[in-house]
Every structure is written in structure tokens, then in C-alpha cells.
Write a structure and sequence with these properties.
Layout lengths: L3 E8 L3 E3 L3 H7 L3 H12 L1 E7 H10 L6 H8 L2 E4 L11 E4 L3 H10 L4 E5 L3 H8 L5 E7 L7 E2 L9 E8 L5 E7 L1
Parallel strand pairs: 1-6, 1-7, 3-4, 3-6, 4-5
Antiparallel strand pairs: 2-8, 7-10, 9-10
Amino acid sequence: MRKLIVEAEVSLDGIVNSPDIWGEVFKHHSKDVTDYLHQLLLSQDALVLGRKTYEAFAKVWPEMDNENAEKINGMPKYVASRTLDPALDWNATLIEGNIPEEILRLKQENGNNLLQYGIGELTHTMLKNKLIDEIQLIVYPFTFGKGERWFDVIDVSSFGLLDSKSFSSGAILLRYQPK
């Protein structure tokens, strides 16, 4: 069975989503952070995305020209949404019906792992249904103060630490397994 890995980049105060946060995050993308994220991406077969992440990614990734863009643009994308039109572009398929059942079906297919970028309502649904095998948080050494905090969308959950790693920029990777 394939694993489902959630990867999120977060400030020290827990912000995962804010219109202005990415400029600060990218300042801390040292070569070792970039290399790690690149290797993580290369080891996945498909992306599982919520609507907001799909819409944001579909605007920027098709216009990029690098190895990560080539991989992301070519990967199948499975999008969980109750509002998007089923006729998606960018090599994407809408997950319709019972989202947890469909994600379990994807996990049961042969192949490498599935990757979800970001944390939101979809993450909450997958955690509640015990579909997530690993959460990888890259915590950056800055506070942002405003925006969506990753724990605002997650119910009380317990995690076991699988591994941690520090990067030259001061960022820290925390790899957790939901209990």
C-alpha cells in the first residue's frame, strides 16, 4: 500500500497560509532545504490536493521551467473539492463522492507514495479517517503573526516523532506519524 505524506512549511508561530508568507519562507530556502524538497517530490507518484492548493498551484506551476515544475506538471493530481467543476485541467482529476474512500482507493493502488502539500480542511478529513501515514513540517525561524495556523484546522491529535533534521538556514524538518 502506498503511503500518504503531508508536507507543509510553517513559521514558528504556526502560520501555514497567508498571502505574504511565501516571500519570507523562500528567504529561508537554503540549498539543503531546496534539495530535500526536491528529493521528496521526486519520490512521489501523485499529488492529493485540496481546492485552494490546486487553484494556487495551477496558476503558477504550468508557467515555471525547472525540474520540479516538470515533475509536478507531469504528475497526476487528485483534487478534493465540493465546488470545482469536474472538468479539471493540468492533469487533474476531481475526487467525487466519498473523499476518504477515494483516497483509500488511491493508497491501495501500486506505485510510489502520494503527497499532499499544505494543511487545511482536506488534511483534517484525512487525519480523522486515519489516511495520513506521515506529516512533514518544515519549521522556519521566523514568526509571521497573521494568517491561517496549521493547528486551527486540525482537531486534537497525537503524533509520534519519526525523525528530525536541521538545515543550514535554521529551518527544522519534523517528521511525524499520526498515532
